[in-house]
Specification:
This is Trypsin-like serine protease. GO terms for molecular function: serine-type endopeptidase activity. The protein contains two helices and twelve strands; from the N terminus they run αββββββββββββα. With 221 residues, the chain is α+β, with helices and mostly antiparallel strands.
Length: 221
């Protein structure tokens, strides 16, 4: 009898603990859902020749095949395509759709129509201001998908990895080898939007370079 009562109290105690401490975790998980679906899941690792980079699947209304944005210097121009992977798992192959002549941007397309990943929404306007929180998602060193938070910096004009003069947006999230082609995202209400593509690492905070939203709009058309 006493044993049954103690067991009953134990169950009630566990339920109370779960009610008190489990709810915040559930709330946090729910709060993170837009970040996962809008910014993290659309980013993949790509391999073009010997080059390992990142790429972002984007919304392309009316097109059945998946298009991904990446950095132009991530594409081996001697190759017609490459591979798309999630961490170490090969998923599918891609073909080069187009490469910009004056910005560090490229678009690749996956012929396999069964490849239907979560897709990032390209922002209509840049609502994030200097100092506002942003996130970068990519595959540093080609290992795994990493999300890095930081702040948006200012816009500057400088030389690209392809020796073109281009406008860039600076931001503090760190970039490493393999991050190129990954996405820079702003929060707009309850969702996240793509505002830049990782291009090159700078020497200090707020000097990591991302293609501007206006150049993405011009490139995508």
């Amino acid at each position: 009898m006493i044993k049954d009562i103690l067991v009953g109290f134990g169950i009630v105690f566990v339920l109370i603990i779960l009610a008190l401490f489990g709810m915040p975790f559930a709330g946090n998980a729910k709060a993170d859902e837009p970040l996962r679906f809008d910014a993290i899941y659309p980013v993949y690792k790509i391999q073009s020749g010997a080059i390992s980079c990142s790429a972002v699947a984007i919304e392309t209304p009316g097109l059945e095949q998946t298009v991904l944005l990446t950095a132009a210097h991530c594409i081996d121009k001697s190759k017609e395509g490459g591979r798309v992977a999630d961490a170490d798992n090969f998923i599918t192959e891609f073909k080069v759709l187009k490469i910009s002549n004056n910005t560090d941007l490229a678009a690749i397309i996956v012929p396999d129509k069964d490849f239907q990943p979560k897709k990032a929404l390209i922002a209509q306007t840049l609502i994030a201001e200097e100092g506002d929180d942003v996130v970068v998602v990519g595959y540093p060193y080609g290992l795994s998908r990493i999300t890095t938070k930081g702040q948006l910096g200012r816009k500057i004009t400088t030389m690209t990895p392809l020796n073109n003069v281009e406008d860039f947006m600076l931001a503090s999230p760190n970039l490493d080898v393999g991050n190129s082609g990954g996405g820079l995202f702003q929060k707009n209400g309850d969702h996240w939007e793509l505002i830049g593509i990782a291009s090159m690492k700078g020497p200090a905070n707020f000097t990591n370079f991302f293609t501007t939203l206006s150049n993405i709009h011009k490139f995508v058309g």
